[in-house]
Design goal:
36% of the residues lie in helices and 22% in strands. The chain has 312 residues and is α/β, with parallel strands linked by helices. The protein has three domains: 126 residues, 3-Layer(aba) Sandwich (D-Maltodextrin-Binding Protein, domain 2), CATH 3.40.190.10; 79 residues, Periplasmic binding protein-like II (D-Maltodextrin-Binding Protein, domain 2), CATH 3.40.190.10; 89 residues, Porphobilinogen deaminase, C-terminal domain (Double Stranded RNA Binding Domain, 2-Layer Sandwich). Helix 9 packs parallel to helix 10. About 7% of the residues have low confidence.
Length: 312
């Protein structure tokens, strides 16, 4: 079984974990995406993964997100690989014709992590906090409007070096990424007050439609709760028709009463935002649709429109 993956250190670490689950006959195939090439030239930031929110029709935001998966999907369609492995938060809502999501192993920690301090409350007034994510920036400003939230890009090591050099007081990164890179000791606090990105902490396998062998392999390592949560979060993204310019959080949990979806949508500057926790729904798709309806009825449509205008 040939598993395609991006060639970054984090992607390879993630792929190694999945390869172990799939078994000895698994071969990793590293694929450099256009997003990777542009990042290496300094032209495009690393994928925030925070706006895993593509519109049903192509937009510039959707095209930007596709830069991190396009070459993997082309290799899959060409039969050069059997499965493509992605961070779920980087996968657009609409997949190319002939491709399907096939499975997802157990989700890692979905929360955002604070590096450099033991809590947001411990940061000094006006502290400089680095993040590459509109979603994180919006929520940080909503929690503490005094913070100086700084856009910072590059891989995890680059960001940690800038923190160590004193350029920043703290960083906010995905806990799962730090843990998968063996840097979990850097985490000062898990930020439960922030709503994670849709799919954060989840790895997802994509396969050709009709490739029963690939689908069977993916199903064999799929965690049902992770799979349901991912579909609920992606259903919310679709219901809102959000784009990469939208600070959107979506975190689903599966319990005895059904699927519960916690959500956030706001403006990048933190000046306006909505948070919600929808009642339990019977299915993942129902949970996403319900959460979307509740947000839209509370004014999320206007926030989405204003976020797009600010990004224009």
């Amino acid at each position: 079984m040939r598993i395609g993956t991006r060639a970054s250190a984090l992607a390879l670490a993630q792929a190694g974990t999945v390869a172990e689950l799939l078994g000895e006959d698994t071969q990793l195939v590293a694929v450099t995406t256009s997003g990777d090439r542009d990042r290496d030239r300094g032209g495009t930031p690393t994928p925030s993964g925070e706006q895993d929110t593509q519109e049903a029709q192509p937009t510039q935001g959707a095209q930007d997100k596709e830069r991190w998966v396009k070459e993997l999907e082309l290799a899959l369609l060409a039969g050069e690989i059997d499965l493509a492995l992605h961070s779920a938060k980087d996968v657009p809502s609409v997949l190319p014709e002939g491709l399907e999501l096939a499975g997802a192993p157990r989700r890692a920690d979905p929360l955002d992590a604070l590096v450099g301090a033991a809590s947001l409350a411990q940061l000094r007034d006006g502290a400089r906090v680095g993040t590459s994510s509109l979603r994180r920036a919006a929520q940080l400003r909503a929690v503490r409007e005094d913070l100086d939230v700084v856009a910072i890009h590059g891989n995890v090591d680059t960001r940690l070096r800038r923190l160590a050099a004193g350029e920043l007081d703290a960083l906010v990164l995905a806990a799962a990424g730090l843990q998968r890179l063996g840097r979990g000791e850097e985490i000062g606090a898990l930020l439960g007050e922030l709503v994670p990105a849709a799919g954060q902490g989840t790895l997802v396998l994509e396969a050709r439609a009709g490739d029963e062998g690939a689908h069977a392999a993916a199903r064999a390592i799929t965690d049902s709760a992770t799979w349901d949560a991912l579909h609920a979060e992606r259903a919310l993204v679709a219901a809102l028709h959000a784009s990469c310019n939208t600070p959107l959080g979506a975190y689903a949990t599966i319990g005895d009463e059904g699927v519960v979806l916690r959500t956030f949508v706001g403006l990048p500057d933190g000046s306006a935002w909505l948070r919600d926790e929808a009642p339990p729904a019977a299915s993942a798709l129902e949970a996403g649709a319900l959460a979307g309806q509740r947000l839209l009825s509370a004014g999320a449509g206007e926030l989405l429109r204003r976020a797009e205008e600010l990004a224009a």
